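re: ur question from earlier - yeah i can do the single chain one, its not a big deal. heres the input i used so u can compare w yours
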Amino acid sequence: METVSDIMSPNPITIVAPATRRDVLIKLVKNNITGMPVVDKEGKLIGMVSRRDIFENPDEEQLAMLTRRDVPVVKEDDSIEYAARVMMRYNRRHIVVIDENNYVVGILTPQDFLSEVIKKRISTPVEELVTKPCFPMHKYTPLPVVLKAITLTAIPAYPVVNDDGNLIGIVTERDLFDKASVDKKVAMSELGLGDDEDAWNWEGIRNVMKLFYMVEKVELPKIPVEEVMIKNPTTVFSKTPIWEAAKIMKRNNFSQLPVRDLHDNLKAMIYDMDVVASLAGVEE
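and the output i got, formated as tokens:
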């Protein structure tokens, strides 16, 4: 039986407490990650911090106040199906893997489960695993409106449609900030991250760019979403087995896919967390 140790990312990046929000942001940006375990000086687990925690507490400076203590954890020898159930129960994108002494030895994200879904060839149709409502955005919707919708609904991606309601693109939170009116060097300075431009990568900066917007350091231009969306996105048929959707996600490093019906109409959105759910009910 394959276990968590077979799919986890070993020796994950961690942050040692005590620390500040600035310390967290530096690690998130430099390593292009969205969350990490918080450990003590010995490397034992204290909790978890993610960009979501920072977004929900934009004025908090101390790591101690940003750290979630109620963290989903599994052991290396736990089954993959058990780990999937833990992820679904907590509805969090990071699961910390610990040893018998509470030392952090690995981390799991939804992407880590995709290979197992493919290997098991789980045949549940995509349409049976859809959990989130699908709200299309018209191509002329201004970017601030799109961000407001993402923030209020906690839906991470929206399909974009034309005047006839036909799918023409997809947009995520990160896509919005490609057009943000902010200088990279100024943005880093505003959050106290210094001015060493060589230390940052644009992908990592985009991961935390929402924070700039929330503290009014960035203005999103009122341009239509069609100017920043991913055009002609890859889609999946509603009756397609979930393992095939997982294969597309893994191959392209996607977190979501639009779902179409027999007549090629947009029907739903399927997310990587929905793929994980297909494992949660599998017999161990």
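The chain has a mean pLDDT of 88. not sure if urs matches, ping me
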